[in-house]
Amino acid sequence: MQPARLQPGDEVRIIAPSTSMAVVKGEQVKLATERLESFGFRVSFGRHVDEHDMFFSTSVENRIEDLHEAFRDPNVKAIFAAIGGYNANQLLSHIDYELIKANPKIVCGYSDITALQLAIYAKTGLITYSGPAFSTFGMKHLADYVVQGMLTALTNDAPFELETSDRWSDDKWYLEQDQRTYYPNTGPLIMTEGKAEGRLIGGNLCTINLLQGTEFMPSLKDAILFIEDDNESHLMTFDRQLQSLLHLPDAKEIKAVLIGRFQKESNVTESALVAMLKNKPELAHIPVVANLDFGHTDPLATLPIGGFAEVVVKNGKTDIWIS
Question: How close are the terminal C-alpha atoms of the chain, in Å?
Fold first, then answer.
């Protein structure tokens, strides 16, 4: 189920299904709001978006209320998560999925929001979007790659290519906006060549694994699996998290694996990553590509969870088309 495309004048609702928006600096909230408005959208906020407790979040009841109200309000055309966190999975058994099915609309965010997005897709078939959070738009030096990727995915019906950015950054931009460090992008890291097509299923790997064995986990049959993790993941934890996912019965029918760029604090070198992935016979017969522009580094692409993708990796070149 494809949500309606965003159009100029549409209302975008900001909610906090995970960490409270209170952790986002006031000037970044102001800039993010102004930036979304400059794209032609009207910005509104859930009633409980700034509430926080000892876990830097608010109650399940209040977060569910904001989620349901956003889907219930006919003026709201898209829902952006304020930021990620750790506890979006607390909401999953309390969501009115029939309400969502009857009022399909865009849901965008990443990291911990993966739990919410995969559950919605599994229970309703609604395509959601792994992409920038509201806080992302609070970057003073926001990459055009992020803006164009988001607008292409959310406002356009035409197929689009997952392109390679010119440069990337992994600094704590929210602490110091003007002291950014950028690195040249060396492009995709190809482990295994091949061709595949299927539905994009994925997001943050450790969050995906929270859903194993539950009704909220989408099938991996015929999936183009895309995964990434943050700086809390190093090579060995990523290895066993991925192995756990590959043990699922329907993982045998994964068509390709796409891996987002690792943060520098993970200390994952390209040679170590290649060695780890080459030691997984489950992946030997399908295309596997890493160092792609999605996840916790800047810039990040916008990918439709449940959208169709074609992956062609041949002669050292990677082409990924999404429709």
Answer: 13
